[in-house]
Amino acid sequence: xxxxxxxxxxxxxxxxxxxxxxxxxxxxxxxxxxxxxxxxxxxxxxxxxxxxxxxxxxxxxxxxxxxxxxxxx
Length: 73
Hints:
By secondary structure, the protein is mostly helical. It has a domain at 19-66. 64% of the residues lie in helices and 0% in strands.
C-alpha cells in the first residue's frame, strides 16, 4: 500500500511544513510522555505546583529544541 501526500505550493506551504516535521514531532511527543510517566511513577523533586510547571515547561522546550520541532508554524 502506498500513501501519497500532495500539496499545491506555495498555497499549501503551512500544511506541507507541518507534515514534513511530523516524524520529529512524534518522537518529541513520545519522549516527553516518557518524562511525564517517569516523574509520576518514580517521583520528582518539584517543590510546589509552580516549580513543577516551571520544570515541565523547561523540559518541554528543551525537547522541542533537541528534536528540532517548530511549533510556531
